[in-house]
Every structure is written in C-alpha cells, then in structure tokens.
Specification:
Layout lengths: L4 E5 L4 H12 L3 E6 L2 H13 L3 E6 L5 H15 L4 E4 L15 H29 L3 E6 L12 H21 L4 E8 L5 H7 L3 H9 L9 H12 L10 E4 L6
Parallel strand pairs: 1-2, 1-4, 2-3, 4-5, 5-6, 6-7
Helix pairs in contact: 1-2, 1-8, 3-4, 4-5
This protein binds nicotinamide-adenine-dinucleotide.
Nicotinamide-adenine-dinucleotide binds next to helix 1 and helix 6.
C-alpha cells in the first residue's frame, strides 16, 4: 500500500476506521471521510501517531456536492488517486416492510446505494483518466446476498451494491481497474451493537448460527479490504467476498 492514495468513506468508526488505520500503517496516504468529524479526526490522529499520513475530509455520501468536493480535494492534496473504499452505511429501521417508513427507505437508499454509485462514478472517472489502474472496494453485507428480516431497505440497498460492483468489474477490468465487494456477517462495531441492542440472549442465539461461533472484528474485515486494494490481489476482480465466519457456507 506504500504511497497509494486511498479514500475511505465512513472512516470515523468501525470497519472504515480499522481499514484506514491498517492502510495508514502500510504506508498509504489515507483520506479519512465521514459525517462524524470527531470520529474521523480520531482516526487521522491514530494514523499520524503511528507515523502514517492521513487527512480528514467531511463528506456526506448522500450529498453529490460533498462527493465531488472530496475527490477534488484529494487530487489537489496528493495529485492522484489509487483506491476507493465505499464503506459508509446505515442500517435504517428495524420494521416489517409494510410498516417501513418511506422517509427511512429513501434515506437508506440515498446513503447505502446512491452514495456508492456517485462515489464510484467520481472515482472511476479519475482512475480511468489517470490510466494506471486502481482498486475500488465496496462494503455490502450478507444482506447483499440474502434477505435480512425487518431490514428491507438495508437488504435492497446492499444487494444493489453487489450489482454495481459486478457491472463495474465487467466494464473496467480492461483498464486494470478492479472492483470488488466485501460482504461481512456481524462485526463488532457500533452499528452491530445497535442492531443487537446489547441483548445477551439474542447475541448468543445469533452466534450459534455462525460456524465460528463468534462475531467478527473490524480489523478482520479491514485486512480483507486492504488486501483487495493492494497489488497482492492483482487478478481478483468482480468478487463478492464473504467475511462471515462461514455463516453462508
Ligand atoms: N457491523 C456489521 O455487523 C456489518 C455487517 C455487514 C455490513 N456492514 C457494513 O459495513 C459498513 C461499516 O459499518 P460499521 O459496522 O463499521 O458501522 P459504524 O456505524 O461503526 O460506521 C459507519 C460509519 O459511516 C458513517 N456514515 C453514516 N452515514 C454517513 C453518510 N451519510 N456519509 C458519510 N458517512 C456516513 C458513520 O458516521 C460511521 O462513522 C456499512 O456499510 C455497513 O452496512 C456492517
């Protein structure tokens, strides 16, 4: 990852934060982006403390102007882009589909799906113009390959991320631009805590459904994401990689 310029959305917490810190520790120049300024700055401080290079740029992925600005600022700072990790996401409501609010449906799709599309569009335009290849990693979910009860908007948006990934992989492989998608099961982050609501009984029941009988750690997902960004995965394109402890085996 040495000297690769990487933008990571939603890098102020959880999986995005772990990915930023790992990429920074391997010599990448990390653009840490989030709507959570405090979390984003904490990520940057950690990377710099470890001797790495990182900057925080605010970006709400539901806002097209913010997205354009983050790519422009990255180019003015580092003169190039190598990798993009579309990680920002929200789970939305936990509700039956007929009771799911229209407002939340639109919000989840705007962040999890349309945000990924606009970030890919900007990132691909730059990587294509540069002509040096590149790597994009999208963060979907097991809910991107099968249904998640009471999470209809989340499930729909995460399926869309898998579709966007595969279409782009077909289009840009010839330019040595690889696009892959990570599908994690439950990873111990604030999002997962919120979904399981700290209920020890339901946490134990869910763990029994996972062959490895435990939830994943953000660092374990980060390692897969950074590998997909790096040249070590130079012939991996269009993959949906489950990081799920075997849950869907
Ligand atoms: N934790 C899990 O169990 C799990 C499982 C599968 C997939 N995922 C996916 O992994 C990704 C990261 O989730 P996490 O578990 O680390 O959650 P998290 O809540 O810890 O981190 C998500 C980050 O995204 C940011 N964010 C939210 N809305 C945003 C917006 N509009 N623009 C920019 N940033 C925004 C948040 O501020 C936060 O810092 C998400 O896409 C999530 O759907 C998580």
């Amino acid at each position: 990852m040495k000297d690769k310029v990487i933008i990571i959305t939603g890098a102020g917490s959880g999986i995005g934060q772990a990915t930023a810190i790992l990429a920074g520790s391997q010599g990448a120049k990390v653009i840490v982006s989030d709507v959570n300024q405090e979390g984003g700055e904490a990520t940057v401080n950690e990377i710099i403390k470890n001797g790495g290079t990182a900057s925080f740029i605010y970006c709400d992925v539901a806002n097209k102007e913010d997205i354009k600005a983050i790519f422009a600022q990255t180019l003015s700072l580092h003169k190039k882009l190598d990798c993009l990790v579309n990680n920002a996401g929200i789970h939305g409501e936990v509700n039956l589909t007929h009771e799911y609010s229209d407002e939340m449906y639109e919000k989840v799709v705007a962040i999890n799906q349309t945000g990924v599309f606009y970030c890919m569009k900007e990132g691909l335009r730059i990587l294509h113009e540069q002509g040096n290849g590149g790597s994009i990693v999208n963060v979907s979910s097991l809910a991107g390959i099968s249904g998640a009860r009471n999470l209809s908007a989340y499930t729909a948006s995460k399926h869309a991320v898998v579709g966007l990934t595969k279409a782009a992989a077909q289009e840009y492989g010839r330019f040595n631009i690889r696009i892959n998608v990570i599908c994690p099961a439950i990873i111990e982050t604030p999002m997962a805590d919120d979904l399981t609501m700290g209920d020890p009984a339901s946490v134990e029941i869910i763990k029994q459904l996972i062959p490895m009988q435990r939830f994943g750690q953000p660092k374990e997902v980060a390692k897969s994401i950074v590998w997909l960004c790096s040249d070590d995965s130079s012939y991996i394109n269009g993959q949906e990689l489950r990081v799920d402890g075997g849950m869907k085996a």
